[in-house]
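haha ok so turns out i had the wrong file open the whole time. this is the CORRECT one, sorry everyone. sequence first:
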Amino acid sequence: MKVNKYRDRVEEKLNDYLPKSGELADSIRYSVIDCGKRFRPILTYTIADIYKEDISLFDSSACAVELIHAYSLIHDDLPAMDDDDVRHSKPACHKEFSEAQAILTGDALQAFAFSIITNDNKIEQSIRLQCVQQLSNASYEMALGQAIDMSIMSRTVDIDILENMHSKKTGALLRCAVNLGATISTKCSPKDMRILDSFSKSIGLAYQIQDDVLDILVSEDVLGKKQNSDIEKNKPTYPSLLGMDNSQIMLNEYYDKAIDSLDKLSVDAERLINLTRKLQSRGF
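then structure:
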């Protein structure tokens, strides 16, 4: 299965890219290696696949988007943010090391993500610049989403505010993973880019609604983090606003919308559709 191939590939490339010695090496590798589902880089690689591109051209961007994701999780777990002690079924970075080390680790990963792209000489300079612009925009949107998240704790909000927050906090980086693949591909037309962007917006929202649902239904051992953490912090979630049944209906509608949007793509999108269906059926 290609998903497993891409997961193994990004793991190998991350291991090559990341520092193996130095003051931050241990906390960086602790927070990145053998951690997470790698869905974002898998998306980037899948775009390369459907356009039959040289996959090596996508390594730096696939790894960069995962490093931004890892940095965001480290900072989100800090006591000043979401105050979570467990991540990927092990102590969060600030619990294993220290709060100061965790902050520096996140800072380093963010900078390192951009460094990987800018130093990838296999890609034309103009394309690298576009990739950096996309990744920086997504990182900023992600921070805006987290700021909204912090501001609405213990507040009653409507679904539009929740959707806006998650389109930034979760959706922006998922969209970026898709758009990076489309930008690097020489065969992806402007029309296809618009289709893929629409696709990525839908899966970004579906993914977050699904996370809210799984946070309630799935045990901590399976989730790899604390169960019901948002409920305990009085955070508004899709189930708290819409109920569990309506939340599940909505996430499936967004996944279906994402798949339907691929009908007019100029290439065979079967692998991307299969990946989306696999994501739709995930249990953690």
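Residues 101 and 198 are 38 Å apart (CA to CA).
again sry for the mixup
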